[in-house]
Amino acid sequence: MITGQPQHSNRLIHESSPYLRQHAHNPVDWFAWGEEAFDLARKENKPVLLSIGYSACHWCHVMAHESFEDEAIAAAMNAGFVNIKVDLEERPDLDQIYQNAVQIFIRRGGGWPLTMFLTPDRVPFYGGTYFPPNDRFGLPGFPKILDRLATAYRERPDDITRTASDVIDALTRRSATRLGTSGEVDPDLLARSAAQLAQIFDSIHGGFGNAPKFPSTPALHLLLRHFHQGGRADDLTRVTQTLGKMAWGGIYDQIGGGFHRYSTDRIWLVPHFEKMLYDNAQLAPLYFAAGQATGHRGYRAIGCEILDYVLREMTAPEGGFYATQDADTDGHEGTTYVWTAAEIGAVLGDEDGAVVCQHYGVTAAGNFEGKNILNVSRPVEALAKEIGMTPEKMGEILRAARPALLAERMKRPQPFRDEKVLTAWNGLMIRAFVEGYNVTREARYLAAAERAVTFVFENLYRDGKMLRVWKDGVAKLNGYLDDTAFLLEAVIALYEATGTGTYLQNARDLAAALCARFEDDAAGGFFFTSSDHEALLSREKPVYDQSIPSGNAVAAHALLRLFYLTGEASYRASVERTLSAAAEVMRDNPSACGNLIAVADFYLRGADQIVLIGDPDTPATQGLLGEIHQLYLPNKVVHLVHPQETSSIPTPAQGKSMINGQPTIYLCRGTTCLPPITDGAQLKAALQTRSFDAPL
Questions:
Q1: How far is CA 453 from CA 97, 276, 278, 433, 557, in A?
Q2: Residues 105 and 38 in one domain
Q3: Domain range for residue 627?
Q4: Residue 120 · residue 129 · CB < 8 Å
Q5: Which end of the chain is less crowded, N or C, counting CB atoms within 10 A of the terminal residue's CB?
Q6: How far apart (Å, rounded) are the C-alpha atoms in residues 200 and 195?
C-alpha cells in the first residue's frame, strides 16, 4: 500500500478506471491499451506484457504488491517489455480473447490477474494468471518468466512466430465452433439439463461440486423452471436447500445484506469477500422467484435485503449503480466484516451480545484468522428453546442487533469501492429492482429502477448507441452486446411494470440497435462486439454463462418478450436464428448454457400473456398486479393497458375491455384467452391451472 508522496507515476494517472489508477504509482512504465503501446513495441522490437484484472480482485492486489511495486521486477519488465494494464470490466472484449488464449497455454480455466505475453501484432505467445515473485505454489517465479520470455523473443524469433501462428489458428477454431449454422432445439433439453445438474448437486450443503463454490444462479433458475413444468419435487428441494444454505452462510453478509463473490469452501462459510453488483443483481430475482414458487416469505426477505444493501452502499447520488466493493480492507481480506465476541458485546451489552454470538456462531477461537465470519447454524426456534428464551424475544434481540452492529461496522475502515457505472451491470440491477417492486409493491424499488434507467439514457446513450462505462462525469468506450441487451431487458421489465409507453419505445430503439450492430443475420446469434468496433484477433459470440449471463441468451430472451408485447415477427425470427445456431452447443454443454436453455424453454412452451386493462394509478389495478406477481410464472408477459388506450392490446385479447368498470385481466396463450377475471382469488386459480381448453 502506497502512503505519503508517491515515488513513481506513470501514464495510468490520467485514466478514469479506478483499477488502472491503482497502478498509477507503480515503478512499472504502464500503458493503457492503445496504439501508442503497440507502436512502441514495433519500434523497439519488444514483446508486450498484458496484465488484465479488476479493482476488487484479491490476487490482482497480491501480484501488484509482490511484483509491480517491486523495483527490481519492475526494472526487468521495463527493460524487456512494453507493459499494458487493462481493466477487464471496461474491456471484457479483450479479456474474452486472452482468457481463451491462456486456456490453450495452461490447459485449464483462466482467471485474474491474467498475465499474457504478446507480439506487437497483439498475438499471444505465452500466458498464465497469477505468478509469484519467486518459485512457489508449483509456479515459476515471475522474474524467471520475464527473463526466459525476453530472451526467447530476442534470440528465437522463429519459435515465437510459430507459437503465435498456432495460437491464432486455435482461437479461430474455438470461435468457429461456439455456434453452429443450424439445428433443431431439443424439446427435452430442459429435462436433460435438470438431470445433469442433479448428478453434480451437493446433497449435503447445496450447490454444485466442491470448493470453491459459486452461487450458480442460472442452474438454480433451470431447476425452478423444470419443477414448474411438472418436474420432480427434488428440483425445488435442490433450489431451496442451496438458497437456504447460502443465506445462512458466511457468503451472505449477515449484518449488511448482499452476497460476497463466492465461497472458498464447500459449506458456504468462508467467502472471497469482494461484492460484485452483477452477483447481487442475479441473486435478488432468484430469491424472489423462490419465494413465489414456495410461498415462503424468507426468500423474499433476502431479496429485499440485497436491494436495500445496493441502495445503501452501491448507488451513486446521480442514480446509477456502482460496480464493486473490494475483497480487502487496508491490504487484508475480510477485515471489515469479521467480529470477536468482545466487539459484539461492546455494542450490544453482555446479555444480548451473548445471544447474538450464539446465533451467529461466534466463538473465542473464531473461524477465520482468529475472528468470526458471522453465519447461522440453526433456526431461531431451536436456539431459543436451547437457551430458554421465547422465539419472539430472541427475534426482537436479533432485529435490534443488526442495525446496531452495522452502524458500528461502518465506523471501521471500509473496502475500496469501484465507483464506475457499467451499462450492462446496471441493466441487470435495474431489472432486479423491478422484480423487487413487482413482488413487494415497494415504491422505493421502482423509484430506484427508474432513476437508474434515466441516468443511463442521459449519460451513456449517444446517437442510438450505448456506451460502456461512466466515471466522474465522463462516459466512454463503445458498448458491447451485454450493454445493449441487458438494458433492453431492463426497459422491457419497466414497461411491463408500469405500462409507460416511453419504455416500450426505448425497447424498440434498443432492439433496432441490437439487431443492426451485433446480429449475425447469416449464421444466427449475436457478436459480442459491434460492427463498428475496434478490430481484434477474433469476434466472439458469447454462448456460455460466465459470472454474468450469456449476451446471446439475454438478447434472445429480450427479443422474445418484445415479440409478445408488440407482435413484430422480426423479433421472433432473430430468436429462432439464435436458438437454431446454439442448438448443438446447448445439447452438448447444458450446464454451461443455463440462460440460453431457459430461453429455449420459453420459446417452446410459449408465453403466458396476461393482459390487464385498468388505470395503473388505482389501488384496484395495483392490487391485481400484486396478485399476478405472487406466483412463479417464468414465461409470463404482462400487458398493462390503460382503459383509454385499448388500441395497444395485443392480438389475443384485441377487442376486450373492462367488465363493469373494474380492472379486468385476460389470460391468453397463442390465439386463445380465458374468460375475464376481476378478482384476486379467481386470478390465482386461473394462473395456477392455466387451462386453455375453451377458446372464447
A1: 30, 19, 16, 11, 19
A2: yes
A3: 608-689
A4: no
A5: N
A6: 9
